[in-house]
Amino acid sequence: ESITGYSREDFTSGRISIANLFHPADKESIRETVNRSVAERKSFQLRYRIRHASGEYRWVDETGAGVYQGDKLIMLEGFLQDVTLQKEAEEKLRKMSDENLRFFNNPVNLNAVADFNGNLVRISPSWTKILGWTPEELKSQPIFNFIHPDDLDLSQKELQGISPTRQVHTFENRLTCKDGSYRWLLWAVSAEPVTKMVYASA
User: What is the tens place of the pLDDT at every residue in 59-72?
Assistant: First the structure.
């Protein structure tokens, strides 16, 4: 009753059928899964939506199996669990992940995750677009090898200074492009002391 909004009597009297509550978009996959499992005499697991008496839809997980007399299927029995909150949380996490990915892959900024030794762990596609180096070339050696010689000491000191803290630091330096030219960059950098990772955007 708490999952569907209908009483036991609504179902046992035949006034309401659980199959009539299936979301239209889920009906075919439910039918195919149950029929296949019954034919193979195996249990089935499903996740689908059912319409609550209020009109809203709830997500449920179902584990079930056929009950037989000889070769004859006489009923299905199983267990349904309301997983609406879990499904909603998963959807929020997926959206957050998509948003983070879009932000990280911003075509204008050079976004990166690096270790405290300056080795690039993850970089956005804009590194190749702006500097010309492939991701493999950029990750094959510390970032310090791409910094203009006149900016190297300052850059190393800045990175060493943020390592013990979580504060955001900004500084400028020049990185070499594959064609031998240099690009001036304004960096915003912070560190995570526990994981020993540096997060940077330029």
Answer: 999 999 999 998 89
